[in-house]
């Protein structure tokens, strides 16, 4: 039995939504990890 196109589209949009959420979480986590390192480097550069 074939799936209806609307059902397939709904599944695709749901997958796309989750991919976008996970990508944004990954970018946010990376930014939170990098930010303290950038602040430390900036502080060290000001001392010298």
TrEMBL record:
The chain crosses the membrane at residues 20-41. It comes from the Bacteria. Keywords: Membrane, Transmembrane, Transmembrane helix. This is Uncharacterized protein. It comes from Caballeronia ptereochthonis. The lineage of its organism: Bacteria, Pseudomonadati, Pseudomonadota, Betaproteobacteria, Burkholderiales.
